[in-house]
């Protein structure tokens, strides 16, 4: 059968109105055009669908069957349109967001939660990577957007600051450096460290920096969480490097001291990073606007 959606709408309009004239008006068609299309629908069906009377029409048994299926088809079409609109407006689907450790653990949760709560049919996959790896993924077209440190070069990509995120040296009370106003990373490379677990993006970054300085961190223990790291440092197990916000959060319970790192790479800010605003999915554009990225003008 070659009937389309417009044919089904016309047939239901005529069937519900009990009149070709009234049905044509509901379908916004001229009477002659509606009558011709109805004849074509019946010819396509191979059987009479309407009984024509002096004062209107009624459905044949075949017509009633067509009306039943036509309603189901139109309902499914409405559902399909609704779902496609949800995808188009970023309210449904799966969003993949790449971010460094600090963004995932301290920045994103409180900001992502209210936005995601308004989109119950949208799923988000968070991918923890070093800022350098996020930039590589964006440049290679393997990711839409990410949250990175501004200490990492991102040539050819757009960056927008969304949060301040300096790193600090975390020390136990009474440490010989506790009275310092600031510390250089090279000054603490001889210390015993409490580190984050292998594979943690921030820890990987810190150990890469130590390697560039020609040193290797003396790691006594690795913890899976910032809270665990702060607890260990508070007990004098070693020193650690954490975001300033994390240090503030746990300083009272762990009795630790945070000293600013003077190195340029530690004076970092979190940035939303992407290649081309026009190529972002509606969901990603919506999220970045929510995070404070200004609307981007089309080229």
Automatic annotation (TrEMBL):
| Superkingdom of origin organism | Bacteria
- Do you know which Pfam families this protein is assigned to? HTH_1 (PF00126), LysR_substrate (PF03466)
Please report the stretch or stretches of sequence annotated as the HTH lysR-type domain.
3-60
Q: Which organism is it from?
A: Stenotrophomonas cyclobalanopsidis
The record's keywords, sorted A to Z, are: DNA-binding, Transcription, Transcription regulation
Q: This chain belongs to which protein, by name?
A: LysR family transcriptional regulator
PROSITE patterns, alphabetically? HTH_LYSR
Q: Does the UniProt entry include the keyword Endoplasmic reticulum?
A: no
InterPro entries reported for this sequence: HTH-type_LysR_regulators, LysR_HTH_N, LysR_subst-bd, WH-like_DNA-bd_sf, WH_DNA-bd_sf
Identify its protein family: Belongs to the LysR transcriptional regulatory family.
């Amino acid at each position: 059968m070659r009937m389309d959606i417009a044919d089904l709408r016309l047939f239901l309009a005529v069937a519900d109105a009990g009149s070709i004239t009234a049905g044509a008006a509901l379908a916004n068609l001229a009477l002659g055009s509606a009558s011709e299309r109805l004849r074509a629908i019946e010819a396509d069906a191979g059987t009479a669908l309407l009984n024509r009377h002096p004062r209107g029409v009624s459905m044949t048994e075949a017509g009633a069957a067509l009306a039943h299926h036509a309603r189901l088809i139109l309902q499914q079409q409405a559902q399909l349109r609704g779902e496609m609109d949800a995808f188009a407006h970023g309210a449904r689907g799966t969003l993949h967001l790449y971010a460094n450790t600090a963004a995932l653990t301290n920045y994103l949760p409180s900001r992502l939660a209210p936005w995601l709560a308004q989109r119950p049919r949208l799923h988000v996959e968070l991918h923890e990577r070093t800022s350098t790896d996020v930039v590589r993924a964006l440049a290679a077209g393997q990711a839409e957007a990410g949250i990175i440190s501004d200490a990492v070069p991102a040539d050819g990509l757009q960056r927008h600051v969304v949060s301040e995120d300096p790193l600090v040296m975390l020390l136990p009370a009474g440490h010989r450096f506790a009275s310092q106003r600031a510390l250089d990373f090279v000054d603490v490379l001889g210390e015993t460290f409490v580190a984050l677990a292998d594979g943690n993006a921030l820890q990987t970054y810190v150990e890469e920096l130590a390697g560039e300085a020609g040193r290797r961190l003396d790691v006594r223990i690795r913890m899976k969480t910032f809270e665990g790291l702060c607890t260990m440092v508070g007990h004098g197990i070693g020193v650690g490097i954490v975001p300033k916000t994390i240090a503030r959060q746990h300083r009272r319970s762990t009795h630790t001291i945070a000293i600013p790192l003077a190195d340029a790479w530690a004076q970092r800010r979190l940035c939303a990073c992407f290649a081309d605003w026009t190529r972002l999915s509606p969901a990603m554009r919506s999220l970045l606007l929510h995070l404070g990225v200004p609307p981007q003008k089309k080229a």
